[in-house]
Amino acid sequence: MTVSQSPINVGILGFGGLGQAAARILAPKQEMTWVAAADHQGFLYDPQGLDPNQAIATYHQHGSVGHVTGQGHLSDTSITDLVQKAQVDGYFLALPNLPNTFMADVARDFIRSGWRGVLVDALKRTSAVEQLLALQSELAEAGITYLTGCGATPGLLTAAAALAAQSYSEIHQVKITFGVGIANWEAYRATIREDIAHMPGFDVEKARAISDEEVAALLDKTNGILSLENMEHADDIMLELAGICHRDQVTVGGVVDTRNPKKPLSTNVQITGRTFEGKISTHTFTLGDETSMAANVCGPAFGYLKAGQQLHRRGIYGLFTAAEIMPLFVR
Ligand code: NAD
């Protein structure tokens, strides 16, 4: 069903690795116009649309999109100020979840602000998604349609598992294995810190507190490689909430190479179950090795934002996960 509608005005909160990739992805889209962004020092707004090249160049040169001449504003309360000023239909929250309560705090700020629209995040931790679940009725009352866990994992791979599960009468295991290759860790600081938080001896607070030099020293010890097993990833709670399996049946692990854009292994999800005839089988969905983390996170995030916008237009508000809504392709 295709209904022609005016383009969705989109804002991007957080303008690091994912935020910048998101701006570039939106540039050629007809169904979405990128009109707003915020980072920790400022914000950028133009209802006519923004130029990703100018915003990215300014961010790299001066440290904030607030320095873009004419459209930028410096602010210590950039998200609050932007939300008050801008006409935005939906925001992609490309923000670090450091501390682990940050995204839920941002959601509460949106609820308090009186803004109505669509929010999409790429949250990773189960405990972070649980905090949003507690806000379900407040989001609904505020007229916000919030889609959580809409990156790659959780996100694209969780949705693939939900789809693959349809062949089975009973699900035995969902096993997610990711490979990420990035040229340097500084391009995705929050992502790498949040990954370090899963390593033995670390937690979110410790990973947040260490200096950039300590992160670099830690990566030096492993030649830039992070190997992660049995991670606390919200794919588990999302598949449980969707009624597909128990959270204990979902495992997530992977390898991140912070010094090489080539993936160290092919990202995949394996879904094992029993068919109605009693056959045990495994479906495997493997991402193309040429696709980057940014493509596999930001693409789905906007697909879910489009789906969220359709729900919002129909008056359907509240909290949804990537495992229960089909993302819509953005033209
Ligand atoms: P980054 O460190 O590169 O950038 C973070 C941005 O947020 C910066 O622009 C910073 O200025 C801004 N920011 C920080 N605090 C802010 C505040 N209080 N107000 C406004 N802006 C603020 O981050 P990244 O590597 O792009 O990662 C973003 C998030 O995406 C992380 O939480 C990461 O875990 C998540 N992620 C999810 C997936 C997935 O598959 N689900 C994959 C990769 C990354």
Description:
The strands form 2 sheets. The protein has an 8-stranded mixed β-sheet with strand order 4-3-2-1-5-6-7-13, with helices on both faces. The longest helix has 21 residues, at 293-313. It has helices at 17-26, 52-62, 78-85, 102-113, 126-133, 136-142, 156-164, 189-196, 204-209, 212-221, 235-241, 293-313, and strands at 8-13, 32-38, 42-45, 72-74, 90-93, 117-121, 144-148, 170-181, 225-228, 250-257, 268-274, 280-286, 318-321. The radius of gyration is 19 Å and the shape is globular. It has 12 helices and 13 strands. It has 2 domains: 8-152 and 294-321, 3-Layer(aba) Sandwich (Rossmann fold), CATH 3.40.50; 156-289, no CATH class. It has 331 residues and is α/β, with parallel strands linked by helices. Nicotinamide-adenine-dinucleotide (NAD) binds next to helix 1, helix 3, helix 8 and helix 12. Residues 14-19, 38-40, 78-79, 94-97, 122, 124, 151-155, 188-191, 194, 293, 297 line the site of nicotinamide-adenine-dinucleotide (NAD).
Determine the strand fraction and express it as a percent band: 15-25%
Compounds present?
nicotinamide-adenine-dinucleotide
Instruction: Give the SSE string.
Output: EHEEHEHEHEHHEHEHHHEHEEEHE
CATH fold-level name of the largest domain: Rossmann fold
